[in-house]
Q: What sequence folds into this?
């Protein structure tokens, strides 16, 4: 598989007034075309910063060192066109006064130069792919449930056929049932279209369900990285073991005693 | 501290505060620099400005010193402006808070009253009030506040309506806090910042209405006011335009200063909130 | 079961917005015994939070009865309602939203003591220190503002506030859902410890069955404003009977079986 993305020695520092906070302390990471990688960690681990850095979405006064190269692309990556980004809070990234179908269509208009009509046709097609009813094309964000909004967010992210889908905690705001649906949707879309996937999550079980490879982040540094199954079966870092121990799933042997 | 440093970085805010500081200094220093009654005759009438050191800005038709009038007028303008704005904001936020909390019929009633006040132009309201109650400093303050409380009331109500659905209010109820305490201690302080953001507009408006009332002869007759001075100069506008222009400039600078300073404060605190 | 601590029968609540009506609770029956943990699970929009708020007397139900320790809770108003509030408390999902943004930790914990006249005025600062210690927080946090401390610390403060009045029931409305997994485990352990020591009953609201399985005695599944299934936690999760129970079990996260060295504590 060809390497799509290569990150080496990435350091990110946030500035606020005179103080600085280091969010990433030297990250090395590569992503092959159509590979699925999950970055997991707890709050403050820098996982969202990594996703934002890859998509070039960090605030302007952020200090960035190291390299983010795209050997798999012939040109500098463009957001929307080459990188599709799925945000944690789909409600916050949709325009409240434009119908969701139009918002998805706009991505195609801007990035693919489609006409208004053709872009709208594409949006209808995408709605089908993310399993949203066609009638919802003309709905506004507030009329949709959280799960439906996230489906719209995903449709917009894949509208221009990006080489990589970056998803920052795409299911954290949703309940378990919807979460499971969205995870399987993302998995299916990525497989169908051969996109690479970089998914950021705090949930190791979710990571295992969707990714080939897992990168565990703590305090801005990689603690452990490897094949998903391998990490779950034989976690080497103490931190990964702690995460796995704290992760509650249904098919562990039940511990005795309630709360 | 951060808000202050941000404030000092914006040139508009610095200019605004400099203007206001100048006006405040004038108001405070008036009795020291011009201990004599500014309404008393001080020299020959209609001395043009910059002719004698004794009357730098000249004298009016009756021979009263314009500079002394300007200083003492600053006292009236600022006092009336601040008092009226304070009264309007306090009354408005209390009424808005009551309406927002009471809901239902009481809310409807209070809001219709607010509508009624808002449909009458503030200046006409003040004019009518002063002509009935008679011109004095307190009636002028009350008259201006009467037309200005509706803005704070509306904003306070809207803030309360959104704040009262927030979890921390539910939290206070769960703890068993008395509704009045919830309103005054938990909700109102959080509703105030947007209301206070209005204050510069209200102060500026109040200063202008006070000047207009004085111009029409409805100001406190025992005090020098800039509006009164402009009116006084009106009769000799062709021969001695400086009599109207000088207090007019003072008025413009004060209103400008209030606007710029207020704008600066709002911007700086908004920036702080977005960083938090 | 002996007479329950809290019993709800036929609770109904319909929200109206203009022409639209939404039946959030369509006749809920529920009992919580003293000292037990009852988990309430269901998807978003199933009525979990509405039910919590009705039980807390934050929302008035349209119909139904609510008894707490033998008292008709819906009949209480004003100062009598405020007084009985010391006996049932609530922890909200988002601790940042659940506190006055201007408040300090000390003020948050002082209020319940003051309102319910617990301990003398001079003794209260010491009480606050004891509460902070109970929930595993350093005394130095006392003067901090809520937005200055971490999410886990905030939720500990929320728990300290809830137990300040020595309640018999605490409703935990998605109280750990927003926390990191390791912090979540710590908070769950803290809650378990408090339950053992003070015999507090919990209504543990969650959408995550995996989280509930090891923490609750009984589970009630709620769907479209109705309790569709109730049962002993492990049994219900092993063999759910209702459609929603099955859907929740199917959606819960699963890890592949681990064969590696045992690292669980």
A:
């Amino acid at each position: 598989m060809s390497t799509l993305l290569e990150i080496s020695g990435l350091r990110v520092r946030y500035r606020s007034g005179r103080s600085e906070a280091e969010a990433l302390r030297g990250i090395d990471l590569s992503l092959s075309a159509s590979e699925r990688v999950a970055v997991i960690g707890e709050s403050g681990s820098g996982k969202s910063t990594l996703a934002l850095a890859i998509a070039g979405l960090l605030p302007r006064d952020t200090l960035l060192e190291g390299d983010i190269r795209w050997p798999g692309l012939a040109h500098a990556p463009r957001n929307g066109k080459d990188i599709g980004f799925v945000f944690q809070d789909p409600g916050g990234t949709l325009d409240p006064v434009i119908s969701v179908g139009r918002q998805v269509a706009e991505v195609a208009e801007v990035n693919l130069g489609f006409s208004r009509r053709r872009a709208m046709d594409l949006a209808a097609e995408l709605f089908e792919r993310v399993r949203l009813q066609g009638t919802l094309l003309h709905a506004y964000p507030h009329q949709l449930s959280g799960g439906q909004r996230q489906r719209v967010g995903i449709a917009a992210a894949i509208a221009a056929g990006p080489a990589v889908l970056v998803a920052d905690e795409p299911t954290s705001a949703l309940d378990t049932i919807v979460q499971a649906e969205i995870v399987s949707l993302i998995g299916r879309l990525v497989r169908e279209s051969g996109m690479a996937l970089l998914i950021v999550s705090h949930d190791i079980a979710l990571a295992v369900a969707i990714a080939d490879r897992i990168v565990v982040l703590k305090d801005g540094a990689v603690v452990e990285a490897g094949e998903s199954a391998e990490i779950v079966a034989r976690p080497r870092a103490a931190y990964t073991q702690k995460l796995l121990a704290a992760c509650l799933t249904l098919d562990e042997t039940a511990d005795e005693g309630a709360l | 501290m951060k808000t202050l440093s941000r404030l000092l970085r914006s040139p508009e805010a610095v200019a605004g505060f400099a203007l206001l500081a100048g006006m405040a200094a004038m108001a405070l220093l008036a009795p020291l620099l011009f201990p004599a009654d500014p309404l008393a005759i001080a020299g020959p009438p209609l001395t043009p400005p910059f002719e004698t050191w004794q009357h730098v800005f000249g004298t009016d038709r009756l021979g009263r010193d314009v500079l002394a009038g300007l200083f003492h007028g600053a006292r009236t303008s600022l006092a009336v402006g601040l008092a009226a704005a304070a009264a309007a904001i306090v009354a408005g936020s209390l009424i808005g808070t009551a309406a927002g909390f009471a809901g239902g019929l009481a809310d409807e009633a209070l809001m219709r009253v607010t509508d009624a006040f808002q449909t009458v132009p503030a200046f006409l309201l003040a004019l009518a009030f002063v002509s009935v109650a008679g011109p004095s400093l307190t009636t002028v303050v009350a008259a201006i506040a009467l037309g200005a409380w509706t803005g704070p009331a509306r904003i306070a109500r809207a803030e309360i309506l959104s704040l009262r659905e927030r979890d921390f209010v539910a939290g206070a109820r769960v703890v068993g806090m008395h509704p009045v305490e919830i309103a005054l201690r938990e909700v109102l302080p959080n509703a105030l910042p947007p209301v206070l953001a209005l204050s510069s507009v209200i102060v500026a408006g109040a200063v202008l209405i006070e000047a207009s009332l004085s111009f029409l002869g409805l100001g406190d007759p025992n005090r020098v006011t800039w509006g009164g001075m402009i009116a006084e100069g009106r009769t000799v506008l062709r021969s001695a335009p400086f009599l109207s222009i000088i207090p007019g400039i003072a008025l413009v600078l004060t209103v400008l200063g209030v606007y710029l300073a207020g704008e600066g404060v709002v911007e700086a605190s908004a920036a702080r909130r977005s960083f938090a | 079961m002996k007479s329950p601590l809290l019993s709800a029968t036929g609770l109904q609540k319909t929200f109206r917005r203009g022409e639209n009506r939404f039946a959030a609770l369509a006749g809920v029956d529920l009992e919580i015994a003293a000292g037990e943990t009852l988990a309430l699970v269901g998807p978003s929009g199933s009525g979990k939070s509405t039910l919590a708020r009705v039980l807390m007397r934050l929302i008035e139900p349209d119909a139904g009865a609510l008894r707490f320790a033998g008292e008709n809770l819906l009949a209480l108003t004003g100062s009598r309602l405020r007084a009985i509030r010391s006996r049932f408390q609530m922890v909200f999902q988002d601790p940042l939203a659940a506190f006055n943004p201007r408040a300090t930790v000390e003020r948050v914990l002082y209020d319940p003591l003051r309102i319910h006249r617990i301990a003398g005025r001079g003794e209260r600062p010491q009480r606050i220190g004891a509460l902070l210690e109970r929930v595993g927080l350093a005394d130095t946090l006392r003067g901090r503002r809520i937005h200055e401390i971490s999410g886990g610390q905030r939720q500990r403060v929320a728990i300290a506030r809830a137990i300040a009045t020595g309640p018999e029931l605490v409703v935990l409305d998605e109280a750990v859902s927003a926390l990191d997994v390791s912090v979540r485990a710590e908070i769950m352990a803290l809650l378990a410890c408090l339950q053992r020591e003070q015999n507090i009953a919990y209504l543990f609201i969650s959408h995550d069955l995996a989280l509930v399985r090891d923490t609750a005695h009984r589970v009630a599944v709620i769907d479209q404003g109705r309790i569709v299934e109730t049962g002993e936690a492990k049994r219900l999760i092993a063999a759910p009977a209702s459609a929603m129970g099955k859907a929740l079990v199917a959606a819960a996260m699963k890890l592949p079986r681990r064969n590696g060295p045992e690292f669980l504590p």
